[in-house]
């Protein structure tokens, strides 16, 4: 097991990279990388261009998914746990998707007509119980009343069948009940008492005096059969949509299980090889971007400017100014970030990462493009970061910086770690000299 002079014997490392492998098709960018980073140390990852250093950083920070291997921070894997809440959330999304599928399968226009619009036509107040009853009637192909051109029609619930037309609502309702009784008798068998839910009252008073219109036997049979095909399609759509929605939700959750924001929330911040600032925002605003997740309440809190939101924003501004002061940019807080000199832009990126309060800072070639004076200042800044209790994992090509500030150095070549140890040990390693340092070692 690897040991670090700063790390007490038997203590777990802050960052534990175990047999990390990253493949892009047939290309192996990183192969079986083992790396421990002790808390309170500076560890440098060096190697020639194309060695896989940035790929390792991208995988640790959640941008890439490892092909195999694990990354742990304080002994915990950098990914969200699958909890009961996750399961029930996926089931709820699946149910909603299933209902949408079922509604599409049973013809949403006809369903809306039968369940909602039908009650509006007859002047019934909308209630959930009434809507549920009309939904039941739709699937049983029961009869309903409709109005057109001032006349009342006796129709099937979906409006496909028009059985009779009357001017008087009471007569139309009685006729509807009598016809429904005839349909129900065929549904349940001759001589059977009709289902009382098919009758809305008044049938007994008008049945004897009403002359039923001539209706073909196949119409009665079709109505008595109900919407078996529609019911099958509806249930099939419900279950298929439920399964698809649940599976899709879990698949999306799985893809985001180890995303950059999950890694950031765990306590890892990073900078990039190429400067990634918001060039048209101020220096202070750039740092505040890194603190956005520390402001609770979300969009509603921001819209209504709650007291908690105002306090959190004030605290974020205070922390942002502290970070700028730490890197020496407190006097530039209101300056546009894109107007800063190159070296100050690098320090601004570090300030934004530090403001998050992360315990591990990944610096990807922070001295790239700097002159010797700026490089020296950067080295001192990294040491001060370590002195503040923040652990640093560094990629750097300036060997004078690496050898001066690093507690340990790991060397990659073609994705494989070929050496690890103190700076003095790495400088003497023949494989490192051959692969990277050359005559400089």
Short description:
This protein is an alpha/beta fold.
Largest sheet: 6 strands, mixed
Listing every helix as H and every strand as E from the N terminus to the C terminus, the arrangement reads EEEHEEHHHEEEHHHHHEHHHHEHEHEEHH
Strand order of the largest sheet: 9-10-11-3-12-13
Tally of DSSP β-strands? 13
Q: In the CATH scheme, what's the topology name of one domain?
A: Rossmann fold
Count of DSSP-assigned helices:
17
Beta-strand residue fraction? 15-25%
Helix content: 40-55%
Q: Cα-atom Rg, whole angstroms?
A: 36 Å
Kindly report the average pLDDT value. 84
CATH architectural label of one domain: 3-Layer(aba) Sandwich
Structural class: alpha/beta
Distance between the termini: 27 Å
CATH superfamily of one domain: P-loop containing nucleotide triphosphate hydrolases
Are there runs of 5+ residues with pLDDT below 50, and where? 1-6, 190-208
Shape: elongated
- Which CATH class of one domain is shown? Alpha Beta
Polypeptide structure, described:
The longest helix has 28 residues, at 228-255. The strands form 3 sheets. This protein has a 6-stranded mixed beta sheet with strand order 9-10-11-3-12-13, sandwiched between helices. It is an alpha/beta fold and 441 residues long. Helices cover 48% and strands 17% of the residues. The model is unreliable at 1-6 and 190-208 (pLDDT under 50). It has helices at residues 53-60, 84-105, 108-121, 128-139, 169-188, 203-207, 217-225, 228-255, 260-266, 283-290, 298-304, 307-327, 342-355, 372-387, 399-405, 423-428, 430-437, and strands at residues 15-24, 27-37, 42-46, 68-73, 76-77, 143-148, 151-156, 162-166, 268-270, 360-364, 391-395, 408-413, 416-421. Among the domains are: 1-80 and 377-392 and 400-441, P-loop containing nucleotide triphosphate hydrolases (Rossmann fold); 107-226, no CATH class. A hairpin with a 5-residue loop joins strand 7 (151-156) and strand 8.
